[in-house]
Amino acid sequence: MAGIQESNREASPDQLESNPPLMVGRAGSHGLGGRIEALMQKDPKKFRQQLLAWYERHRRDLPWRANRDPYRVWLSEIMLQQTRVAAVIEYYQEFLQRFPTVEKLAGAREASVLAAWSGLGYYRRARMLHAAAKIVVREYEGRFPTTAEGWRTLPGIGRYTAAAVASIAFDEPVAVVDGNVERVLQRVSGARLAGEELWDAANDLLNTKRPGDFNQAMMELGAVVCTPRAPACLTCPVVELCVTRGETAPTGKPARQNKREIHYALDRRDGEVFLVRRPTDASLMPGMWELPELPSTHGTGSPSYTLRHSITTTDYTVRVWHAAVPARVDGKWIPTGHVGQVALTGLAQKILRKAEVV
Questions:
Q1: For strand 289-290 and strand 314-321, is the pairing parallel, antiparallel, or unpaired?
Q2: Which of 131, 193, 196, 211 is most buried, taking the most CB atoms under 10 A from its CB?
Q3: Cα separation, 27 vs 211, whole angstroms
């Protein structure tokens, strides 16, 4: 898959966090006094009350909200990075069936973890999740950190995820800022906040008695009501406290979508399918399995079928040919009954589903 960068559908919490210098803010820790009151020119206490009342009545019934188990909260937050909620639900439940505890995850082979993650994209998340699980089990005896600062010591945990897990699972009074929260704060305050201003404002507004619920309520409001386009202000529980009533300053033109065409061979024989493995040192999806790519000038006639595959700023037209793979291609024949256990790229999984192989 030489020209394709594996990604997912929508931007969402962490942007695949790394660990920059620790800067986790606590509610009331930054000495800004009445900053959020000045920004809102309204009553933040009323905002908190009305938002939480709305959340209790209207929050979506999502599987990771069933309890506050830190393992499940952590898993959901990692899966939700750059991925739509609807896409995560199925993978979340299947992943928990295979790895119901952090001990099971830590003891699994990386290939098994990647196979369970196959189709979600951004496979670095799965590798970091696996690495962090091993640390929790081996160094912390299976006990999770209870603070955002503690979570930041684990691989793949950045500022957002640390605050989300610590507040939801352990009630630590730390605010989160993702794209949804950023949009709500900017519209409510009428200010173009950025960087530390966002985190300071979020911590000022936080309900410190129910930080986990409040953080989820802010994200829920941004996801289902205060949406990027056509916000549903008439159904917003805090509309009378909002300065802009859904308006925000323009942020520039959206990124232009590029268009590309790519061809793959689907070679099958005697209940097997031919797959190739990406190099283990590849910068993208190392060690993942995919179909052999064909040159764009492949033969004549028509492909067996065509798929659309969008990744970040590129829309791909994917042509799939039932064709024998050239002898020079280094790959492996995989029994179709075992394909579901192989760590496939997202596009390979999509092609094989269309072909009814998986």
A1: unpaired
A2: 211
A3: 10
Catalytic residue list contains 261: no
pLDDT digits (tens, 9 = 90+) for 54-89: 999 999 999 999 999 999 999 999 999 988 898 899
Whole-angstrom Cα distance, residue 91 to residue 338? 18
Q: What are phi and psi of 247, to 5 degrees?
A: -90, 145
Instruction: From 97, 91, 140, select the one nearest 118 (Cα to Cα).
Output: 91
Per-residue pLDDT of 159-195, as tens digits, reads 999 999 999 999 999 999 999 999 999 999 888 888 9
Please calculate the CA angle 191-197-203 and round it to the nearest 5 degrees.
105
CA distance 340 to 56: 39
In degrees and rounded to multiples of 5, residue 258 shows phi and psi of -85, 160
| pTM: predicted TM-score of the whole model, two decimal places | 0.73
In what helix (H) or strand (E) does residue 348 lie, and over which residues does it extend? helix 346-354
CB 88, CB 80: distance < 8 Å: yes
What span, in angstroms and rounded, lies between the C-alpha atoms of 181 and 279? 39
277 forms beta bridges with 289
Q: How many Cβ atoms are within 10 Å of 233's Cβ, its own excluded?
A: 16
Q: Which two tokens stand for residue 223?
A: 């996801």
**Cα 356 to Cα 130: distance, rounded to the nearest angstrom:** 30
DSSP line for 291-323: PPEE-TT--SS--SEEEEEEETTEEEEEEEE--
> Among residues 17, 37, 56, 77, which one is catalytic?
77
